[in-house]
Amino acid sequence: MKNFTSVHDINNLDELVKQALELKSNPHAYKHLGQNKTIGLIFLNPSLRTRLSTQIAASNLGMSVIVMNMDKEGWALETGDGVVMNGTTVEHIREAAAVMGEYCDIIGVRAFPKLVDKEEDYSEDFFNKFIKYANVPIVSLESATLHPLQSLADVITITEERASNPKFANGRKPKVVLTWAPHIKAIPQAVANSCAEWMNVADVDFVITHPVGYELDTKFTGNATITNNQDEALKDADFVYVKNWSTYTEYGKVICNDPSWMLTNEKLKITNDAQVMHCLPVRRGVELSDEILDGPKSLVLKQANNRTWAAQAVIKQMLEGLVK
Ligand code: CP
Questions:
Q1: pLDDT of residue 324
Q2: How far apart are CA 217 and CA 6, in angstroms?
Q3: Strand-pair partners of 140
């Protein structure tokens, strides 16, 4: 695997999930692979799970880990080509990415969208330039439009639950519902886009539900069933993935804050005894009810745990492909 920025960078999802679960049961089996290799984790935005789980994953593989909060500790980066840098930006991404590539064998990058200019965000200009100039494999730690390590962890979580729950003993495909949830701020579409992209590849029946106006880019939703009726979507659901996103069409806006979209135990009664997922961080009482987060149906901590094995499976494949 040269880079990991979307589901399209992997060869076989089932194999990758199997590898992640093997690593989960034996985290240090490939400690030799990363010996004398360095991963740099570059954050332009805050993180708890991605930062810690990727650090642990790389460490389990024997790598040295450098973490840099680029937004606070680095020079202000310019990404425009041909710009005369007589303003606030101090270093061009051409040099910055290339220099990091000199120090690191693999680089992980987190760079959120600005949610101002849809074309700019959806072009993934920052990530594409980073890949071009760093000249080493790049792992997305969440880009403007996608969060593939989160989605891989989510597929791993569903796979584990499916294997251990008797209701799937007959080989029935789980029904997974991605439901929009209220939020007070404009949040990127990355987790929702990525969830759609990966669930469309996974062996599940996938449904998306959101208020009118919150349609996602069809490039990611593909053939998913989409409805504005949350109750209809929740019927017979086995997994409900709760996530807010700001509007894609009226780009970056919050046009609905209807609290009735927040998932509650009452709403879960419509489902087929569904388990509830969220990537975290979550705003309690806004996006998701306390009763669900604190109750037996919540998978949020299992998802967070599986972030390590998702990252480790991806970094392992990259290390195996390194020729340096
Ligand atoms: N889910 C997730 O990516 O969490 P962090 O933003 O804390 O890394």
A1: 47
A2: 15
A3: 109
User: Ligand 1 test: best mutation among 280, 300, 303, 308, most atoms within 8 Å of CB?
Assistant: 280
Q: Which H helix or E strand runs over 276?
A: strand 275-277
The 3 state secondary structure assigned to 125-191 is: HHHHHHHHHHCCCEEECCCCCCCHHHHHHHHHHHHHHHHHCHHHCCCCCCEEEEEECCCCCCCCCHH
Residue 52 pLDDT grade (very low, low, confident, very high; cuts 50, 70, 90): very high
Task: Give the C-alpha separation, 44 to 90, whole Å.
Answer: 15
Closest among 296, 303, 262, 297 to 280, alpha carbons compared: 303
Distance between Cα 150 and ligand 1 center (Å): 8
Among 279, 299, 303, the mutation site with the greatest number of ligand 1 atoms within 8 A of its Cβ is 279
Q: Which residue has the tokens 């989605």?
A: 151
Both tokens assigned to 173: 């495909």
Q: What is the largest CA-CA distance in the chain?
A: 65
Pocket of ligand 1 (CB under 6 A): 47-50, 142, 150, 279-281
Give yes or no for residue 187 having a pLDDT over 70.
Answer: yes
pTM greater than 0.90 (yes/no): yes
Q: Decide if 52 contacts 26 (C-beta within 8 A).
A: no
